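[recover] target loaded
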């Protein structure tokens, strides 16, 4: 779970440097990978994937 702030920062930095028209589609591609991982792991790794997914979802819907 220590990596959550780093993952959130990476998502935020991607958002800041990506053209507005490509932001959501790019995050959706990343989210697809995160969801694949989320379905394949348990414990701390699953909670990490859930936290990253929630942050991506928040960015997409903002």
């Amino acid at each position: 779970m220590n990596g959550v702030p780093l993952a959130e920062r990476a998502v935020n930095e991607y958002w800041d440097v990506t053209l507005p028209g490509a932001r959501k589609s790019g995050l959706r591609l990343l989210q697809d990978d995160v969801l694949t991982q989320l379905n394949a792991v348990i414990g701390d790794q699953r909670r990490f994937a859930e936290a990253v997914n929630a942050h991506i979802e928040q960015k997409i819907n903002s």
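[recover] notes: The longest helix spans residues 20-38.
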